[in-house]
Design brief:
Radius of gyration of chain A: 22 Å
Largest interface: A-B, 41 and 30 residues
CATH architecture of the largest domain in chain A: 3-Layer(aba) Sandwich
Largest sheet of chain A: 8 strands, mixed
Order of helices and strands of chain A: HEHHEHHEEHEEHEHEHEHEHHEEHEH
Helix content of chain A: 25-40%
Oligomer: homodimer
Number of strands of chain A: 13
CATH class of the largest domain in chain A: Alpha Beta
Shape of chain A: globular
């Protein structure tokens, strides 16, 4: 049986409030054998207080050994099996800039790049142009017309933009035109099946026109496209869980992921303090609150152990304001690990804390990867955190007589 | 989604080396309440050093409570779901003696047995004849002809041989003719479906002829057959994982299992020291090394606790030579437990150690069943060890954007 079918059958909405606080890339590694992880090194008195009252464990985003991107990592935390629901990057980027993608759309992430006279890529990010230039270049691309489709080009930030091709019978089994290296030209698009061949044909016309309209605009004189994706059909969190969910995130990608599962996306400001203030402001209007904190991941990706520790401490410092609102369930976890030692996402299980008045206590007294090994949640697939949250919120009835 | 499809998509071959050291039947039980297991009793300074740098846990070969044979146990360690891939004993035995089974073949394991004048079995292993006699008896069986099929009879060792029936439309849903007891005659073969009825009819003719040609050869004057099996279609480890795998095993069964998943089978000598020398010799030619150590299982099956402890210590003594080669990932585990207290395979989870430079430390400092309970791997299906090995070897890309 599909777990969503089960939850739909068992859900019993009530007035409880659930907060899912995602510290992106929370899990880490010690720099030296015998050392501590970032989370273990951080001074986290408020998280530790939660840990002592709640239950801890480690969540496995996809499967042991599998390193998730942000999409699968978050879908799992929202209770959607990340192996069943696969979301292409193009869709995520489009959702993240509030573009209303629909069933006739194929979306793709675009990069402005620099090419030399022979058309070979010399900079895959066009020197990271200011966002204003990105906007101006997108305005040029918006003049391109290809018969049979509507084309929407929208800036994201710096070198990044989104293209949406809207038409009938468009497939998304199209390769990236980004060759992932310099010294070679962008790749032509090819479709793996007839509808995707249609898309590829349109894409190649668009790219040829883009080269023409941008030819005098070095360093932003060419584009690459990656992550062609159709809009997926996904039941909303309200349908499945009976909650009224809101996303309080700063970065587009996470807003997009939230919108995909039917969350309202709040205007969350730009700092964690803004986000917590937004949470307070919206407290009476919603009952499921997804707070996304980006900087535990970005400091990890930078390989900056000390900065990641500091970001964790900053998160800890905001916790009392969240708890003061009186959530019935508070989960603190990550969508994956991003050890600063590895400077990238990793497969390591993610430290997880669930606080509610109905937790069975375990022996864990501090928040950290090694301590969580002794936690009452054990090591569980991340997609089961959502049923656990609903259960602790009194929102799930009994299965079977 | 099938995990193999996922891994095929994510695999990123590199120059890393993975060693999978399988101590057959490694897991055990204490003889007395409060006592230690074989592994906990053994002095294992080298394994313990690995444990302190690596991550430990317990692997569950099939499902909790399910006792695996060598086939499912090893398939799981190779990352093949043992409930999806089912390999009959006949195929394993045929592979183990280098017999080239193909898609038209049904293979079966044969035993020479002793029967009395009434045809009742008096010794199910014919007094364990010397292998030379097995060869001579097989030569007699090779004279048997049955219309419609080619029959191949090959000696294994002592009382054991293999028969392969090659023909069209042969099924393998045929019962064992071995009644698993003495005092009764061998059972007739019966097929559970039309193709298997064809096979059974042929088998019964073969057995009748075997009784005739061996009638003066007591104690090897009859045969029993068990484990009828067709050749399964299995993707190779190279296809799924992108590794170049080699098996360094002494016993035919394990060579056969390795060949089934596309491993090259090395000439490994006959002792563990030979095997480690083979590993050293082949180090530059392959990147995945399966070392199989039989004697932890056979001493367990003998019920010899002290001998099993000694075998574990012998294994431990070879570990420095393996580590000196500089593997990127080293896994030490078993394909199942074989507690000497039970004198048989068992369902108990198997102590498992994974060493690499990217392990998140846990609190385990000694190798043993009880210590592994606190390990960072938790208790996981054995089939996930392979994705974990690939992840730690840097051989898996990110799943999703």
């Amino acid at each position: 049986m599909n777990i969503h079918d089960l939850i739909r059958e068992l859900q019993e909405p009530n007035d409880s409030k659930i907060v899912l606080l995602v510290a992106d890339g929370l899990g880490g590694l010690p720099l030296e054998p015998g050392g501590k992880t970032e989370l273990e090194s951080a001074r986290t008195p408020n998280l530790d207080a939660c840990v002592r009252e709640g239950v801890c464990g480690l969540s496995i985003p996809v499967l042991p050994g599998i390193t998730p991107g942000s999409g699968p990592g978050h879908l799992a935390l929202f209770g959607y099996d990340p192996l069943q629901y696969r979301i292409g990057r193009g869709i995520l980027e489009a959702l993240g800039i509030n573009f209303e993608v629909g069933p006739r759309d194929v979306a793709v992430r675009g990069n402005f790049v620099t090419v030399d006279d022979a058309g070979r890529i010399t900079d895959r990010r066009a020197g990271r142009p200011p966002t204003e230039r990105c906007v101006a270049m997108c305005r040029k691309l918006q003049t391109i017309r290809v018969p049979g489709v509507d084309i929407f080009v929208e800036p994201v930030r710096e070198h990044r933009f989104v293209v949406v091709f809207r038409g009938d019978q468009l497939g998304d089994a199209v390769n990236d035109t980004d060759p992932q290296q310099t010294g070679v030209p962008p790749l032509p698009a090819r479709g793996a099946d007839p509808p995707s061949e249609t898309t590829a044909h349109i894409v190649n016309q668009f790219v040829a026109e883009a080269a023409r309209v941008l030819r005098d605009d070095a360093p932003t004189n060419m584009v690459t496209l990656r992550g062609f994706a159709r809009y997926p059909k996904i039941a909303t969190m309200h349908e499945v869980y009976g909650v009224r969910p809101v996303a309080i995130a700063v970065y587009p990608m996470y807003k997009g992921l939230a919108r995909l599962v039917g969350m309202t996306v709040a205007d969350a400001g730009s700092t964690l303090a803004d986000q917590v203030e937004t949470l307070r402001r919206l407290w009476d209007q919603f009952d499921f609150f997804f707070l996304h904190f980006k900087y535990t991941d970005s400091t990890g990706e930078d390989g900056n152990f000390a900065a990641k520790v500091e970001m964790i401490e900053r998160l800890d410092a905001e916790l009392p304001r969240i708890r003061a609102l009186g959530p019935d369930v508070l989960i603190v976890t990550g969508d994956h690990s991003t050890p600063s030692k590895l400077r990238s996402h990793s497969w390591h299980p993610v430290p997880t804390l669930l606080w509610s008045r109905t937790c069975r206590p375990d022996a864990v007294t501090e928040f950290g990867e090694t301590y969580c090994l002794r936690g009452g949640l054990g090591q569980i697939p991340a997609m089961y955190l959502m049923p656990l949250a609903l259960a602790h919120a009194g929102r799930l009835g009994k299965y079977g007589a």
